[in-house]
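B., you asked whether I could sanity-check this one before it goes into the benchmark set. Here's the sequence:
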Amino acid sequence: MLIGWAVLAATFGITSWLLSGMDVTGGVWGYLLVSLLFGIVNAVVGTLLRLLTLPLTVVTLGLFLFIINAVLLVITDALTDHLSIDSFFWTAIWAAVIMAIVSMVLNLILAGVSRSQAASA
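And here's what the prediction gave me:
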């Protein structure tokens, strides 16, 4: 769970570095706080939104999940001063897309590292 939290914090860091309209302040603690808050919002509100929009998600072949993640980012932005997102349409949606890609890459790297450590032991 702590590794997942660190990966999410790193995802926020890389995304805010790549996307000029998204900013996380507060240093490492700011990234950890934003990722913790986003995880809580994602677990509570995200679950409800995914259930309510399941037919639309199926029709769009999962692409609507980027909109849901963008909404979750905007909610997280409203709850904390450490996260700043300029606009919903461009910044939040692009942040959701970039975060999905970065998270996938970081999880693949982490899985590769853990596999290589397990093989050498």
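One thing to flag: Residues 26 and 82 are 6 Å apart (CA to CA). Otherwise nothing jumped out at me.
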